[in-house]
Design goal:
Arylamine N-acetyltransferase fold, 13 strands, 8 helices, 27% strand, eight-stranded antiparallel beta sheet, alpha+beta, five-stranded antiparallel beta sheet, disordered C terminus, N-hydroxyarylamine O-acetyltransferase, 281 residues, Papain-like_cys_pep_sf
Amino acid sequence: MSPFLTAYLARLSWTDSVAVDIETLRGLHLRHTCTIPFENLDVLLPREIQLDDQSLEDKLIHARRGGYCFEQNGLFERVLREIGFDVRSVLGRVVLSNPPQMPPRTHRLLVIDLAGERWIADVGFGGQTLTAPIQLQANKEQTTPHGVYRLLNEGNDWILQFRHHDRWQSMYHFDLVPQYIADYVAGNFWSAHWPQSHFRHHLLMCRHLPDGGKLTLTNYHFTHQQDGHTVESINLPDVESLYLLLQDKFGQGVDDPKNGFTLADLAAVMTAFDTHGEAGK
């Protein structure tokens, strides 16, 4: 086992063996989303988000930080490939907010071929991210530890939806066209630098819990949800409380010389938000 894979499994507190099978894929998928938080702090700091293998390893594993889809699924793809899975990334178009026209490809997800079946995996979509791989089959409701999902198929286009109470909500469109590293670099740059990107206007964080719950943060507002119900909702009073919560609830590492962040760093970010939680003008 490589030093990288050993360090990753230690990050997840994974003590079982790994193999090219669905049990390993499901187990790692869930443990990853319950350990490595989804977050966009580097966009706000601002720091350039690097997608090379060493940068992702240093930030998400050794510095114990989180990241967003290009980082999360980039790391997970490397993990699965080193174990021996047949895996590759594709790009999707996010439609969660029902945009008036089709947006660019700014979401990275994974396609896995395993034992004659094709699966998609995604450990980087924030509060609605999959916490288990799902089969690439149309119109099949698939239950994960944190919700029910389905895929629709329209020609070459696939649409991932989640069930929200009594209706289905589309998350993103994607196809299976092979992508190049340059495509991920371009999508990552757009997500981090486009003036209207929501990653530039809110501090966003999510960590799923093994019991089916999830923790979310939007600016100063923290929630703990369980079985679709909010069991805790807090508006944090100040940046000091926020700094502690990031470490206590989301497991954020803050001490790494390159990828950590100080209370002063966080305070500088949060001064951009007014009392309504929107980015200041």
